[in-house]
Amino acid sequence: MDQHAERESALHTLGGNLLITAGVVVTVVMALLLAQLDTVQTLLPSLPSPIAQLTAPAATGTPLPSTPLPTTTATAVPPTPTPIPAAQPSPTAVAVLASCGDVPTGWVPYTVQPGDSYFFLSANSGATINEIVQA
């Protein structure tokens, strides 16, 4: 009976060791996959986000009320020169860059470049990724 108890103890120890080993392997595989996802960001081209957008007012479906036109008789009027009105400039969209406010003393402003990752920005600035996301 003593051999049977030793064999059961060895199987329990082996099962525990296999479970720990499997956990470590899964952790390493997940870390490698996450590292690959970080490099995918640098490979994909980023699209510029619109800063301002003009929208036309929505058309209404209600027809205008019809009114009868007044009838008048034509009278001869001598021709007079009519001044041509000056062309009015049409409004154009102007891009407004987002501003984060005042830069604290000791900080150096940095413009994010295509391909920069949160990890890269965090490593170079000393800020945490959460601080960068909230900024």
List keywords for this structure.
0% strand, 135 residues, mainly alpha, 41% helix
Structure description:
With 135 residues, the chain is mainly alpha-helical. Among the domains are: 1-44; 98-135, no CATH class. The chain contains 3 helices and no strands. The protein starts with a helix and ends with a helix.
Provide the structure class: mainly alpha
> Helix count?
3
Helix content: 40-55%
- Determine Rg (CA atoms, Å): 37 Å
Tell how many strands the DSSP assignment holds.
0
pLDDT < 50 runs, ≥5 residues: none
Question: For the terminal residues, how far apart are their CA atoms?
Answer: 68 Å
**Outline type:** elongated
Question: Topology of this structure?
Answer:
Blueprint: H1 2-43, H2 118-125, H3 129-134
Brief summary:
The protein is mainly alpha-helical and 135 residues long. It has 3 helices and no strands.
